[in-house]
Structures are given as C-alpha cells and as structure tokens.
Amino acid sequence: MGAQEGDLIINTTTNPQPKTLPEWRRFRFPQSLYKWGVLAATLAFVAWSLEVLRIDVDRLPGLFQRIVDVLSRRYWPPEWSFIVKPEFLDAIVDTFQMSYVATVVGLLVAIPLAWFASFNMTPSRRFLYPVCRLIVMSCRSVHEMIWTIMLVAIVGFGMLPGTLAMTLFCIGFGGKLMAEAIEAIRTGPVEAIRATGAGHLQTFVFAVMPQVRVAWAGIAIYTWDVVFRASTIVGFFGAGGMGHYLRESVQRLETKQVAAIIFTIVGIVIVAELFSAWVRARIARAAA
What we know:
Elements: H1 31-52, H2 63-75, H3 80-83, H4 86-116, H5 128-141, H6 144-155, H7 159-183, H8 187-195, H9 200-234, H10 242-251, H11 255-287
Helix pairs in contact: 4-5, 4-7, 4-9, 5-7, 6-7, 7-9, 8-9, 9-10, 9-11, 10-11
C-alpha cells in the first residue's frame, strides 16, 4: 500500500547527529578537594618514606660531582685493548647465541601457553586456563637473575644455566604479552569460523593467528631485545658470556677493564635496539 498524499514519510537512512564534544570546565568542589587531597597524601608519603629509609637528602646536591670524580680517577680511560682479545670476542658471540636460542625456544613454548592462557580462546577454562596462567605467571614473577643463580647451583657454571634462565624469562614475558594480544582480538572472525564446524585448532589457526601475527612479531622482536640485554649480565652470576669477564674484572679491581666492558655492552645494546626498531618498522609497514 503506497503512501497517501500528506502522509509523513520518515527517512530511516538519515545519519545520526554527530556527538558534541564535552564542555570544558574547571574542577569544582568536591573534585578539587579530591585532587589536592591526593597530592597532599602523595607528598606526605614521600616525606615519610625518606624519613623511614633514612635517606640523607643533603648529600644529593654533590652526588653528581662525586660520580664524575670517581669515574675520571678510576675508570678513565677505558682499557680498549682488553675488548679486542679473541676470548672476549668469543664471549660476545656466545652472548648472542645464548639470547637467540633462549628467545626461539622460549617463544615456541610460549605460543601454546598463550593460547591456553587466554580467557576468550582457551579450549578449557576450568583446567587449561588456570594451569597455563599459573605457568606463565610463575616464569614471569621470578627475575631472570634469580633463575640464573638457582640454575647455576643446580646444573653448574656455563652457558646452559644462562640459556635456561633466559628461556624461562621468555616464556613468562612473551606468554603474558601474547595472551593479552589474543584476548584483544575481534570475535566476529572467530564466530564465523566456528559456525562452519571448525575445531579449536582450526579456529586458532584461521581466526586468531591472522589477527595477532603482526602483534606477535613485534612481541617476539621486543622479547629478544630484552633477553639480549639481560644475557649480557647473567654471566656475572656464572652463566658465561660477557658477564663472566665483567665479574672477573670487578673482582680483580681492574676498573679500566670494567669501563671498557660496560662501554662495549652499551654499544652492543644500542645497535640491537636500532636493529629491532628497524625490523618492527618494516613489519608495521608490511601489515599496513
């Protein structure tokens, strides 16, 4: 039945009116009272902490001058000839290898754990989710230096405890970030794949992986970046690598060798940071 003359025709395709921006106004009572109360409580807590910890604030103004004096008298100039020795260069290569192996193995273990530890995609919320969450949280809650000390006491000195410690760190660090990336996906593709009768693995491969692959690639690169920084130090606790020579130089009070090793670690970390930033940028451009 067509519309008669004079009938009111409502256009349902009209775009909704744009939302107006909220009007700006100053804090009013009691909002302003809350703001100043929180600020006063924070300052009072800082003052109380300084008093309890017995931190002598009067010594802070001359702190930087004392640091410069100590560095100039004891650590300068660095003993650059030490870092070009073949054994130290081999230690640098060992550090790279330790971080690479730990990252690859740790992330391979972290991928299924992240799947099972994501609340929205886990095949079993009653069993797999809490167990895998507990594993990821346990690996992440213990610092990599503590893992190194424990594993050195168990398996002895060498590259093995350092690699195992970094692997556990990767499982906790990468598993946590990967699980959060899964929990942030859109549910539409997942429901569409499930509607075809796909199982848990097929849903994960065809609905989840396409949404998280770019985020996971960035997480993997960032994890390796963090692991490499930590692997330069774990040798200080008996896990080999550059940290082993750093510990020996510190124990012998060879401060100029210590300075050379520290500058080397800083330089390598900067290069690794630039490389990881370049790779992340390439991945972001490829996914755009």
